Amino acid sequence: MRIILLGPPGAGKGTQAKKIINEFNIPHISTGDIFRKNISERTEIGVRAKAFIDNGQLVPDDITIDICLERLTYKDCENGFLLDGFPRTVPQADALQEFLSKRELSLDAAINIVVPEDVLKRRLSGRRVCVHCGASFNIETNPPKLEGKCDFCSSDLIQRSDDSLETVNERLEVYKRQTQPIIDYYSNKGLLKNIDGYQDIAKVFEDICKTLGRDPK
Ligand code: AP5
Ligand code: MG
């Protein structure tokens, strides 16, 4: 399966990605996670990306396209992949299309997780992420079993630096301006699957599996 996950900040892309990759046994490629890893390792890409991410802006296409397409050449992508947060602009979508066409490959689905904006803001302000494995929790809607600790690896949970109210508002505006056009892009290709993301995490996953023609395990 070659799947892309679309949806605004806080829609639940990362949360659903973890479940989808288990179900379909494919790698999870999140450009946001790749950038955060580079930032924590203080690489050149990390330094360049940080300025954009902290302001709620998209990292420029040339950096993002290179980093994502390079990742897609790894051996673990031979049998498919799940892209989370890429593409986010029309040039990125075009670059992905060109990459796949050259290899005579195609996407199976573009899953668009739809959630009302007020819910997105509440989710992002309550989000806590694991410093070690990146698992995402929410103090209101999806709390960890032990406060401040990851259910999966027991590491500390922190708030993401771009989850401040001001940066969240900017991220949502940037989403509308730059990313929403690719909804039409994939709709025109007949690949778009809209999923109601304002439901229980398990129900959202069930709907995603159904739309991909699979009964969840
Ligand atoms: P990225 O890390 O991709 O952030 P994002 O798209 O803003 O999305 P989020 O990760 O904030 O939300 P999510 O949809 O994954 O939600 P989650 O599952 O965590 O990108 C960060 C930045 O990197 C960008 O702003 C940009 O600067 C840069 N970047 C990345 N990719 C780029 C690209 N292609 N081009 C240019 N720049 C790029 O869930 C959110 C919260 O809600 C959690 O607390 C979770 O527990 C909770 N939750 C999830 N589902 C539910 C549910 N069904 N019910 C209740 N609560 C739920
Ligand atoms: Mg995410």
Automatic annotation (TrEMBL):
InterPro entries: Adenyl_kin_sub, Adenylat/UMP-CMP_kin, Adenylat_kinase_CS, Adenylate_kinase_lid-dom, P-loop_NTPase
Binding site for ATP: G10, A11, G12, K13, G14, T15, R127, S136, F137, Q199
Pathways involved: Purine metabolism; AMP biosynthesis via salvage pathway; AMP from ADP: step 1/1
Pfam family, one: ADK_lid
Segments of this protein annotated with the region NMP: 30-59
EC number: 2.7.4.3
Kinase listed as a keyword: yes
CDD domains reported in the protein's UniProt record: ADK
Family from the record: Belongs to the adenylate kinase family.
Swiss-Prot/TrEMBL domain comment: Consists of three domains, a large central CORE domain and two small peripheral domains, NMPbind and LID, which undergo movements during catalysis. The LID domain closes over the site of phosphoryl transfer upon ATP binding. Assembling and dissambling the active center during each catalytic cycle provides an effective means to prevent ATP hydrolysis. Some bacteria have evolved a zinc-coordinating structure that stabilizes the LID domain.
Subunit organization: Monomer.
Designated name of the protein: Adenylate kinase
Native source species: Caloramator mitchellensis
Taxon lineage: Bacteria, Bacillati, Bacillota, Clostridia, Eubacteriales
